[in-house]
Predict the structure.
Amino acid sequence: MGTLRIDKVSHVFFNNDDPLGTMALDNISFEIKDSEFACLLGPSGCGKTTLLRIAAGLEPLKSGEVTLNNVPIAGPNPKWGMVFQQYSLFPWRTIINNVIFGLEMQGGISREKLRAMGCKYLKMVGLEAFQNRYPHELSGGMQQRAAIARALANEPEVLFMDEPFGALDAQTRNGLQLELLKIWHQKNITLLFVTHSVDEAVFMADKIIVMTDRPGRVKEVITVGLPHPRIRTSPEVNYIRNKVLNLL
Amino acid sequence: MLKPNRFNVKSHSRVVCPAVETFSLPNLLNNYGLNHLMKYTSIHTAQQKMQKSFFIFLGLLIWQIVAVLIVKNKFKLPSFSDVIMALMKVSISGALFTDIAISLIHFAIGIIAAVSIGIPIGIVMGWFKKMNGVMSPFIEILRPIPPLAWIPFAMSWFGLTHQAAGFVIFIGMIFPIIINTYTGFQNIPKVHVEAAMVLGCNKNKSLIYYVALPSAMPSIISGIRIAMGTGWMCLVAAEMFGVSSDGLGYELWQSFHLHRMDYVFMYMLLLGFIGFFIDAFFRRHVNKKFLRWQQGIIL
């Protein structure tokens, strides 16, 4: 639903100990086309999360430009959703009230309508049976699914995901990857997904943006070009996995 | 009776590890698949209640015996029966109920003022860094002043009114409320604020209302509970030191001047009971309403 363009973005972190600053991102440029699934891949500490946070408007943009459909991104906005690495559901709200939070903020929607819309998105992630539970009553995987539903409820044009499955076990993770792919097909949403798992990136993405270690630079942009569903152990997938691994 | 497969062999497979769980009879029955025996567990709790009241009775009996047979001095230790008699007298004359009502009015003035002023101050200090810099020096200097040191000013500002006693209680209560609100705001997870921001909750006002306040609510509530303890202490002291000419604290002090230690003891116990009931009421109603989401995490 939107083309995201990152243009010559650099970022330097300053703190009291080192007045010169640490270069986190160095001249990053790439483009994600409408409804494309892009993975940002790189070793931990290479600035993937920083880049994502800048793109989502949570971190100030110091140099370069980030545009969505040629409109610069300034500050957080429900048009670009975000799923965090940590569990970010509001613990004082039930699952359904978490999901409708964004809609509630838009205002002017009746309670019943909000509830119905919330149910729709919970159904999408298979959690409609848990709508009246509190987040702490759900497993980690379920909480992340609810967080995805919460981000989708705002109908964002781009969804930023910051290692959303990083804290989960391998089985849950595989399940959620499939579910995310299903949702992505349904919604035709532009996705920027941060991960440090090569397997995850190769299994899901159309485009893999491989980053170097600090300072983060774009090493190579690999177009995967394999149809879904992919088989994790097929020769084609393995070929791309090798290609990516050689870059890291 | 609790041996696993005596009643039902199949249920044995459901025994995971009963030792880890609480060793209460209902839990055990549940673990061993003996739910149908659950109705008998009420005997168990009834028995516990019996035991409890027996020990209370024993304590009262010992008190009576010690006071009448060993101490034999009403000024040093009034007996249980003396205290009961004192309670009867003030109840019959009706003086007791006016005093309780007046003390509760003092307490209500204090708590309403402290909550409605303390929480906003804590919010402003916790949310706006600049305001914290401006306000915290004042708070830090005023806070260590014992609330009772304010009694002279309470009298000079409000005279011998309910407001004067309420003011001293207010001083005792406001600082724990401010500090706990502030701390609650400091500990809001950043990810919750950011999540709200990307979902379209951007203004300070709505972020405070929808994210910060509910997130800090456990801390605020425990601040109010701590404050109620200090407030109750201040109530007695304020009434004793003459800010009021009524109330339980005032009557306690008057009884002491009349050397009626049975009355003193009766008022002490009453203060204890009323304080306990206020706290129990608070826990039951306020905690349930505001902290329902925490059940299972902490409670």
Summary: Chain B is about 75% helix and 0% strand. Confidence is low (pLDDT under 50) at residues 1-22 of chain B.
